[in-house]
Amino acid sequence: MTDDAKRSGLSRRSFLRGGAAGALSGGLAAGLLTGEAAGAAAATDAEAPDTVGPGPVEIELEVNGATRRLAVEPRVTLLDGLRDRLDVTGPKRVCDRGTCGACTVLEDGRPIYACSRLMIESAGRSITTVEGLGSPDAMHDVQQAFVENDAQQCGYCTPGFVVATAALLARHPAPSEQEIEAGLGGNLCRCGTYKGIRAVVEGAGGGGVSGG
Amino acid sequence: MRPFGYAAPATVDQAVGLLEAEGSEALAGGTDLLSLLKDDVERVDRLVALRGVPGLSGIELDGGMLRVGAMTTLQELRDDDGAIAALPALAVAIDGVASPQLRAMGTVGGDLLQRPRCWYYRRGFGLLALAADGRSMVADGDNRYHAIFPEGEARFVNPSSLAPLLVALGAEAVVHGPAGERRLPVEALYRAPQAAGERENTLAPGELLVGVEANVEGSRSAVYEVRQRRALDWPLMAAAVSLTGSGPRTERARIVLGHAAPVPHVATAAADVLSGQELTPETVAAAANAAVEGARPMSGNRYKVQLARTAVRRALGRAAGMEI
Amino acid sequence: MADYSWPEADRRALIGSRPARLDGPVKSTGFAKYPSDQNPSGLLAAKILTCPHAHARIVGIDTSAAEAMPGVRVVHVIQGEGSEIQWAGDEIAAVAAVTEEVARDAVRAIRVDYEVLPHFVTEEDRDGAPDARAAGERAEGDPDAAFATAHRTVERTLGMPQMAHMCLEPHGQVCSWDGDELEVHASTQAVSTLAGQFATELGVPASQVRIRTEYMGGGFGSKFSPDRWGIVGAELARKAGAPVKLFLERDQEVTVAGSRPSAFARIRAAADEQGRLVAWDSDSWGSGGLPGTGQTPLPYVFSRLPNRRTRHTSVPTNLAGSRAWRAPNHPQACFLTMAVLDDLADELGLDPIDFLERNLDLTGRADTYREQFAIAAEMASWKERWQPRGRTREGAVHRGLGVSVHTWGGRGHSSNCDVTVHPDGAVEARIGSQDIGTGTRTIVAQVLAETFGLELNQVRVSLGDNVYPQSGPSGGSSTVGGVTASTRRAAQDALREVLVHVAPRLEAEPEQLVAGGGRVFVDGDSSRGMSWREAAAQIGGAPISVQGRNPGPGRLISSGVGGVQIAEVEVDIETGVVHVERVIAVQDCGLIINRRLAESQVYGGLIMGVGYALYEEWIPDPVSGRLLNADMEFYKLAGLVDVGSLEVHMMTGPGYDERGVIGLGEPPVISPGAAISNAVANAIGVRVPYLPLTPDRVLDALAGRGGPA
Q1: Given an 8 Å threshold on Cβ–Cβ distance, is C624 in contact with B229?
Q2: Which residue has the higher pLDDT, C294 or C572?
Q3: Among residues C202, C227, C247, which one ends one of the domains?
Q4: d(CA A21, CA A49)
Q5: How far apart are CA C538 and CA C499, in angstroms?
């Protein structure tokens, strides 16, 4: 994951090919709230950006380390773009309303609900899905721990839980109860695999899972 | 989602210009707006993406003044040690959003301006949810999560996690619009709509919330939320309090309820009870009772009156550092 | 007839051990392709238009705008003009288009005019129901006389609402036609029986319908049929001449694709001075949507209770019909019964375990329950920690303990399994079963490897495809018994054939030979043997292939289990928020094939139980007739941090294993509602009459507003 975060240092400008002016990277401009920064920015860049869409817009983003280019309508979510357009089906569509976590992916290293992000908003960014963390022959430590602790039954929530768990352990290698609550409160399972997932997370402090 | 266009302005002024056009909506974290579009509850011609607008996100602590850009994510704010040290109650309010994904995506501005979660509104019956015969679907239907302080036919609750605390602190919202900048108290962002088509916020077309400012010095504040689940769940009730005064007496109190009314509900009578008083179990209980004076619960949400009393008492206890 | 049996305990290498599930790595890496993940070339996306009204007649439907949309391939009307629609969410029309977005656009463009009719969706109000029907009355003994002379009587009105299956992978399938051959990737619990149902509806021979379910995202009783959307998906694919993916959207999944019937009852129960149950009178009702419900089996477990009268009323509503939900009828009957018995124990001033033990002769398995009470009480430190109601508190937070008992069958279903031994030593099983997350793939492999004395990775299991021998649907906790019995019989027969070929080389009789540790050798003299590879080479050029069947000879499986659970809760009496601190499950289960997977089943049952005890309910709107929480935001599942500490004791090993394999998926989900409700009553001193135990209901009970009781 830390690697993924490193890969994202690309300017967003060049990745929206449909004509929209890209934006510069964020950061609070000192004094914005008093109006100075906005005024200054407007003075240097007065021309309004084009509106792209509603038809397909060519974008580029990085998915699991590979640069992917595709044309998507602005209304296509990152989740549907991954699943329907790029055949990256690890992230699952379950609630489709930013509640259950089955679609969790990392965007520039941060866990997000792919169902609640427009794909066009991820242009120029780096996406890591559960497939990008490891493969059956070379599992990520968290994936290995999910297998060993039987932290999965039907397995449909598992991709989201694995990604959320990896993100949690990257931040807190030995999470407290409060950190577990804050880190895994955004994912739901129906079969009832929480005992195993808890074992994955709590075993982390013992060195079983590095979280990296 | 129906088809829509997408524009990514590079400046606040560009964003304001784009938002002036009818059918344009600002896109912040997207966690609420996308659901509304999917459910066909709201429709847009164009989304104006704020994610890349420089200067809209960030946190500054200048003396006792905390300034937070509207596009700052909840997680960024939670991770800002300076802001949290200056205002520990922020951590409680943000942690109430028990999902790292929502904290990573959701923004301060998005939290403040998210639309109500009323299940009638979300099913396309409108914010006021009036049936064809003019009767309130909420009053006649299932209102277990609705307002105990309805205003006219507005019976939904304001869902913001941050608004109660910001209102209790007397925070200001900074808004940019076609006519330039204006500042208003955070509570003035909200209103209770009384006619179909009216919104629950006071922003005019083209206006953009760019940030909030709060004086975090010289007061003790706290938040208490009643949530059924520890995992991601909406509070059933929330209370935020801010107390000023040196020594044991409270000079001025602000008590605000969330999830109680269509707007953050400022409990003036409760604050008055504490004015000039020491916090004791008795004064706190009196304030808690005063906080629900005038409550008009419906068929299924009487329990929320009790939750409001409890939330106020516990928030005051936290602010005062005492078990109550 | 050959002898079919499980190896003796000291000869088991794999059975009863804890190997990790074989498909764990593909699932935890996202490489497993579920039916909803299938993206064949040329795939079209399909969406369904549903009715927004709970009761209506279609007076007009116009699909022309949808048909004219670019990218739309087929528009199919499911229920046309004149149709009477009986629940919101019922399917009206379907569209296949080049993308999901276009399909949704087209669905929105279909114009339907409805004549809206009156609806009824709130069955707890039995008296307001337009169509309540008496559904059985039974009496035994003389309940009126028994109540008249009883020492203590309690009367309660209790209930639990309808709830959703909420499978994470929605119901649906990908259908592809090749000429008149149909292939369906279905999210199903019934690989072997689905084809016939598709075939009948589509007018093709079942031999031309292929069903594939390598993985599937959750099945709790609602995925046994192609359903209307399955047939419609196949029709759309046939008309479009292209594969069609049709999975329900979440709101449809919650609304129409599976719910558990509600159960309400006004119950009187009485005991004598010795704490013996003497009388029961229950007047129950409930709904499973439009079809209503059948009788709830009351009194539960204590079914030999003398002097009893039971009446039941079925209350149809304008909601989609319910489906089998994990242990059909049992969680409801368990809650209604155990809550009343718990209240009666309190009335008698008895520890509820003591009270239940005094009445175990009224159950069918007194010895099992007595043993389980002892184990569970020990695990919970019940004797030291249990106190009469309302006595354990710290400030606003009250703690309580509650207990419940349950029973289930779990006999293995009909199952055929082909086992093949190849001359190179490769061993494989083919079985038309499905792994719905319970670990079927893994336990079949364990039985296979155990029988041939091999490692788990030396055998191959193919399932999830109806080209393999038929095996029953995964329901009723019947899969583990069915598939292990058929596999064991086939494997034992195949091994015997191998041994016949090997015996001459070892100068022994086949009956003297055993397979173990990757070798075949003379029992008691391992020096007289050969490697499995060499042994397999003795069979000649052609593989040995044998089919095993269940039911069949030998004592491999049985049925009938008991279970006891204890829950510990914390209740904040100022907010009504309940948190489950701990659930202890003591489960009777016979021979366990895989300890780890068996425990996972029990944990899963407990977690689902915490869900329906505290959070889960369908919330139909009396005004619009629609579900107000057809989502995952206000239809609340328990989260990881909501379920407390879970502890499981499996009654397995010597003395239990002799019963053979018994299904385990259902029994653990039966008791949590009752045990948690009883724990809450113990904590706060009053019964909260309804599940789920939400803050409003808890505060109402504390305020003496306990519902209609």
Answers
A1: no
A2: C572
A3: C247
A4: 5
A5: 9
What residues form DSSP beta bridges with C419?
C429, C546
Write down the ipTM of this complex. Answer: 0.97
Cα R_g (chain B), whole angstroms? 19
Q: For residues C451-461, give the mean pLDDT.
A: 98
Residue C66 lies in a domain: yes
Degrees to nearest 5, angle at CA C684 with B96 and B294: 60
Closest Cα in chain C, distance from residue A157 (Å): 7
CA A42 centroid distance within chain: 31
Asked whether C634 and C619 are in contact (CB, 8 A), the reply is: yes
Interface-testing mutation among A32, A36, A188, with chain B (most B C-beta atoms within 10 A): A32
pLDDT in tens, A82-125: 999 999 999 999 999 999 999 999 999 999 999 999 999 999 99
CB contact under 8 Å between C623 and B137, yes or no, is yes
Could you tell me if residue C300 is inside a domain? no
Average pLDDT for C105-109:
98
Q: How many CB pairs under 8 A join A and B?
A: 199
Residue A39: pLDDT above 70?
A: no
Output the pLDDT for position A48. Answer: 74
Angle subtended by helix axes C672-684 and C330-348, to nearest 10: 30
Residue-range definition of the domain harbouring residue C81 = 35-118+171-247
Give the Cα separation of A162 and A56 in Å (integer).
32
Residue ranges and CATH numbers for the domains of chain A are 2-19+54-132 (3.10.20.30), 134-206 (1.10.150.120)
Q: Does C37 touch chain A (CB under 8 A)?
A: yes
Query: CB distance B10–A24 less than 8 Å?
Result: yes
A: neighbours with 3+ CB pairs under 8 Å? B, C
**Cβ-defined contact of C216 to A154 (cutoff 8 Å):** yes
Question: Which residue in A has a C-alpha nearest to residue B105's C-alpha?
Answer: A112
**Residue A204 has what pLDDT?**
66
C624 touches chain B (CB under 8 A): yes
Q: Give yes or no for residue A211 having a pLDDT over 90.
A: no
Letter string b/e over residues B52-89, b meaning 16 or more CB atoms within 10 A of that residue's CB: bbbbbbbbbbeeeebbbbbbbbbbbbbebeebeebbeb
Query: Among residues 202-261 of chain B, which lie with CB inside 8 Å of chain C?
Result: 226-234, 236
Q: Which helix (H) or strand (E) holds C674?
A: helix C672-684
pLDDT at A212 over 60: no
pLDDT tens for B84-140 read 999 999 999 999 999 999 999 999 999 999 999 999 999 999 999 999 999 999 999
pLDDT score of A208 more than 90: no
Comparing CB atoms, the residue among C23, C250, C641 nearest residue A181 is C641
Residue C487's pLDDT is 98
Its sign, for the CA torsion C446, C451, C456, C461, is negative
CATH number, domain at C188? 3.90.1170.50
**Chain C neighbors of B145, CB-CB under 8 A:** 634
> Do C635 and C686 have their domain in common?
yes
| Residue B242 sits at the chain A interface (C-beta within 8 Å) | no
pLDDT of residue A207: 43
* C235 & C195 share domain: yes
Q: Name the residue of chain B whose CA is nearest to A76's CA.
A: B1
Residue C607 contacts A, CB cutoff 8 Å: yes
Q: For residue C62, what are the β-bridge partners?
A: C111
Which residues 6+ apart lie within 8 Å of A44 measured at CB? Answer: none
Pick the residue of A12, A13, A33, A125 with the most B CBs within 10 A to test the interface with B by mutation.
A33
Residue A36 binned pLDDT confidence (cut-offs 50, 70, 90): very low
Nearest C-alpha of chain B: how many angstroms from C679?
17
Domain boundary among the residues C515, C550, C585 is at C550
Digit-coded pLDDT (tens) for B264-312: 999 999 999 999 999 999 999 999 999 999 999 999 999 999 999 999 9
| Mean pLDDT score, C316-337 | 97
